[in-house]
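worker-03 picked up job from queue 'complexes'. Input manifest follows; five sequence lines, order preserved.
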Amino acid sequence: MLVNCVAYQDGRKLADITREEIGAYVERPECFVWVALKEPEPAELDAMQRQFGLHPLAVEDARHGHQRPKLEEYGDSLFLVVHTIELQEGELQLGEVHLFVGRNYVLSARTRTQQGFAEVRARCEREPELLKRGAGFVAYAIVDAVVDRYFPVVEALEAELERAEERIFAGAPARASVEALYALKQKLMVVLHAVRPLEEAIGKLCGGRIPAVAAGTQEYFRDISDHLARIHADIESLRDMVTTAMSVNLSLISLQENENTKRLAAYAALVAVPTLIAGLYGMNFQEMPGLRWQFGFPLTVATMVSVDYWVYRRLRGAGWL
Amino acid sequence: MLVNCVAYQDGRKLADITREEIGAYVERPECFVWVALKEPEPAELDAMQRQFGLHPLAVEDARHGHQRPKLEEYGDSLFLVVHTIELQEGELQLGEVHLFVGRNYVLSARTRTQQGFAEVRARCEREPELLKRGAGFVAYAIVDAVVDRYFPVVEALEAELERAEERIFAGAPARASVEALYALKQKLMVVLHAVRPLEEAIGKLCGGRIPAVAAGTQEYFRDISDHLARIHADIESLRDMVTTAMSVNLSLISLQENENTKRLAAYAALVAVPTLIAGLYGMNFQEMPGLRWQFGFPLTVATMVSVDYWVYRRLRGAGWL
Amino acid sequence: MLVNCVAYQDGRKLADITREEIGAYVERPECFVWVALKEPEPAELDAMQRQFGLHPLAVEDARHGHQRPKLEEYGDSLFLVVHTIELQEGELQLGEVHLFVGRNYVLSARTRTQQGFAEVRARCEREPELLKRGAGFVAYAIVDAVVDRYFPVVEALEAELERAEERIFAGAPARASVEALYALKQKLMVVLHAVRPLEEAIGKLCGGRIPAVAAGTQEYFRDISDHLARIHADIESLRDMVTTAMSVNLSLISLQENENTKRLAAYAALVAVPTLIAGLYGMNFQEMPGLRWQFGFPLTVATMVSVDYWVYRRLRGAGWL
Amino acid sequence: MLVNCVAYQDGRKLADITREEIGAYVERPECFVWVALKEPEPAELDAMQRQFGLHPLAVEDARHGHQRPKLEEYGDSLFLVVHTIELQEGELQLGEVHLFVGRNYVLSARTRTQQGFAEVRARCEREPELLKRGAGFVAYAIVDAVVDRYFPVVEALEAELERAEERIFAGAPARASVEALYALKQKLMVVLHAVRPLEEAIGKLCGGRIPAVAAGTQEYFRDISDHLARIHADIESLRDMVTTAMSVNLSLISLQENENTKRLAAYAALVAVPTLIAGLYGMNFQEMPGLRWQFGFPLTVATMVSVDYWVYRRLRGAGWL
Amino acid sequence: MLVNCVAYQDGRKLADITREEIGAYVERPECFVWVALKEPEPAELDAMQRQFGLHPLAVEDARHGHQRPKLEEYGDSLFLVVHTIELQEGELQLGEVHLFVGRNYVLSARTRTQQGFAEVRARCEREPELLKRGAGFVAYAIVDAVVDRYFPVVEALEAELERAEERIFAGAPARASVEALYALKQKLMVVLHAVRPLEEAIGKLCGGRIPAVAAGTQEYFRDISDHLARIHADIESLRDMVTTAMSVNLSLISLQENENTKRLAAYAALVAVPTLIAGLYGMNFQEMPGLRWQFGFPLTVATMVSVDYWVYRRLRGAGWL
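worker-03 finished. Artifact:
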């Protein structure tokens, strides 16, 4: 679906144009065309390929989707794949943005994501001196918008780890903690898959040989690269802590078992001792001290209680109860 | 076994030729020869070596088989080893494809695999402008076909992990989960052994100094390289998750043991308490309260039941039962 | 908040100047301006940006804060982000120092930290020949002061590990050890996040192409780089030992459980044996040896005690008690 | 001990020569001398040093032995250390081969190994065109022979892992499995120590700046490099699987414990229930239902058996028995 | 403390000189001065700085001590920090050697170590042709002496691991094994901290751009580099094996627990069965078979013994006893 298709000149909006006019505007070197697609149909992509003269491999990638984040140069144009990540009810939703960037055009096509770039466009239109910098700057603005939305996701995952940690140390049911940590690990892998290759791709736009369309914007891309490095480092330490939390959880489960065994043993002792005494007087010897004595029974029971109380105190003192 | 042996000119099929004619066609610079072998006999390989002038080390590798994926340059010709992976009834079947690529010939020899390249050839023949690009493009088309078939394998392994995860969290017999995860890990190692060295080999065809026969196709090989990077990343995260799932499983086993111990203790308590009471009245004191009373026995039993009911409620409340 | 704003010439203090005079002094090539801010307001940063002509991206980073340590070149000026780490009652407090370094000025802005740089300035003013070396040297002196304060933090963490180790091997409550090790691991991650990117950033000032403002000070920055490498190595081995200590702790918990089980079994045996004997004489056979014998009961009890004593000795010998 | 000392010309054997004649032949540029030593005495090495003009550091290394595999260039001659690995009754035997390679000589000295190079020499002598290629080729042939013998060792270790896996999953005594896996891990470390540095050393002979004596043989050394890469990858995945198998084993031990606990609990229940019933009728109340009834005892026993049977069925159903 | 201060010419000892004469001798290009300090006082270092013209940062490092091993170039002189490791009663003692190396002088300062370099000096003086090679060679000789003393340390740690392994598999108290492995791991970290940075530092003296004072000795430093690589590899595999041994130990602890549980269950069974039988005949039914029969008791006891014997045999057969 075509969202926007606008021609700019000198950083100012010239006109909303139709799909068919694109080719004509792109050929005018002083013009700049910025097209935004959403869930593009194959036919739309084909039309764009003709209008912009896009490389068939890039268009095929966009058509298939499910690409990993990457940057590819085709002659003097760039093809960028970026993943969007959104949190919906605690679940990660992955989308893709495909960017085709030429000397005087930017084509963005997004799929499976709620995030639009209307705001990016509005800001650029408000500040013509930014838009004048050309396609590289627009590409930066779009990628920057996507990457900025990674931060709340990472923070949500950090919060998830913190909740899991609290639960673990508070002695909440260990099974739930195990499941929560496992789910967290899975989410971290998903984010890592979006971030790591993008970091690599963006690195090519801010160091070494810079592609011509991104010339003059490397400081901006370095800024993104820096954000990605920070996110990457955050994810790595989250992963590390998740692993550690899992092993902590296992230790606490083992500890819990120790406690249980001790508790079990303690209660067993409290029952076993009077049972033994009862067993003694359950023997059928005709001569047992106090057997016929009136206070035999109460005294024996009293003995049982006293011994148990003593055992109980000792067990308590040793921390078994 | 010789599957196909065809000479092309200007991207169009010239003729099916015999093994002996190969040398003559290869010498005509405007011709292009594409030979496909299947489970080649040593004698066939020797014949090919003579006709194409292949390097003895490359032919020896093809003869021995069991090579790791690799790319080797011998003068201006290439020797490529690629592994095929097929899933047959849940088991991975490994095969090998050896590609000899020269300026105007491609020789493919496949062993231990059902996958043929008839479809690749058919597509190339339907589109002469592709075939015109020469040996590099044909090599790309064959490797691309092999790599494309890795995806369903990786997806099958992902599905296997998901099933294992479900079973683990559903509390299925832990032994089966352990065995399933171990088997999955083994399969991942096998796929990794096919993918990692191939990624490295293909990397030499799309960056740095490109061998002459692959010149002009680096964008295509970069596409394969990208697929391999994605598969590699997928396998790495699968491996990571398998390891995590194993440790989760161990935690759940320990937890299960905790539950068992608690359950065991709870039932022991339910039995021990009335046993103790019975022991008391089993003592042979002549004077015990209620001994001769008609309702002594029923009341004692009722006491036992009440106490047990109380114990049961408390244990239930504490989650031990 | 403006802490200091001083102009220097030939390494000697010229005058405390006002915020508005900065631009004039910076334009005099023989002058050198050194400004220190603390918890800067956005307005202050804007004023500084105008006076020094700072790059908007750098100022934006300073305004937002929460940057990872980094070095960025904007034309011939540098922007450095450094983390401060302070230990307050066992908790790590993270702060940030932003350094803007130009040919003849240094602007430092610190947030969330108690650490000031008055001492650094005092030392520099006492030794004009140091100050004469210019902005690069002042930047070195500030970063060096920050990094020097990492050492006591690392030492405190090492002491924390040692305390945890002692507790573990002394058999202190395992739960507390687990929590202590987990907390230590978290702190190590925090320090690592401050150190690792800074090491990378400083590396750019002591090897390869040195930015102009740092020319002639690479030996000093190499010294910092070396300190950071040492801290980094220390943290890595701390992390390694924490992981090892955790697994040691788990082993000891399992061992403890073994001991408990053995102890439990031993006590059970001590009770079970006399219970069994009592059970024998509790049977209602009319003919049982010694049933009517006067010493039947005492002898049986004596037997119980003897058998138990023997069992006790054996259990003790086997280390179960 | 001197095994062989032969001079060659134009790829053909000229004569067996004595140790003293070596120097004379080496000085004739059209000659090629190939000497093989076995467990060389210091005196022999000294003699060789004089005859070939070997570098003192290389000779000292050969004299001391216990070197790690390496390649060193001394002027235009090479010194190569390669480890031999042999399996003797399941134990790994490590030996060393030291190769001194100059423009027109090769000196091999092997220690602590049964493997000789007579076969290598025989093959070279049968094919003069190979021998004509000079010292680089002979060095290749020797190293290739050593590396080829790594393959059966790796296969033996793979078989060892498979046996261990089978035993683990078949439920064989876990202690034996642990010991087997530990021993396997140790052996893998030994092989890794032989392979990894050799891979690095051989890499210098097939890429980048090739030393003069190996010029023209890089394709051969690349073949060895490839073998080593395959062995290395095999060992790495073996190591990974050994670690995984160990953790699997631990999981199965824990599982086994769960089963034991459940079994123990189940049998305890089967005994406890009739014991409780017996306890009831063991009480000395004068009025208990059926006490004087003729069928009281058999009925009670029958009740016990029925209840136990019911308990048994339930436990069986729950998989506890 | 000044240990030695000698001037050499042409590789021969000229004279023992005083501290004040150093400067004069160093200025004579044909002379070479070699000074050895031990636990140097700040004042001594200051004097040396003046005499040799050492760089202030290097001297400051030497004064503070506790440097990590490193190589630093100051103009055309070098500053090298090397750690000494000594084993004293099973504990590692770390010392430091600081080397200042100029065109015609070497100054060594050692602290916290028993190891002197008298032997190195003696050997150099005995072989003037070695000493003639200059400062680079002397630096090599000293570092070589330090590194050579690492080998016995590593061997001692290997022996420690072997002892721990034997104890583990022999079933010695697991707690002691855990402690021993932990202590070993700590020692390995210490050695690693000495070796890894030194390896890096020495690498700069045998490859790439060699500092002028080390020119012509790279083959010697490559020899040290090689020793360090071997030690490094040894330590890495020791660390790996320690980790493995720890997990083996944990497995064996769990196994031991399994055995204990089984043993406990088995003994419980042996007691429970006769207790149950006794319970049966403890019931107060007036009619129980054999109650009044003379052989009732002995037969019942005999039955108990038989049943127990049968149970015992079965348990034994199943390996529970």
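worker-03 released lock.
The first helix of chain A runs from residue 22 to 27.
The mean pLDDT of chain A is 90.
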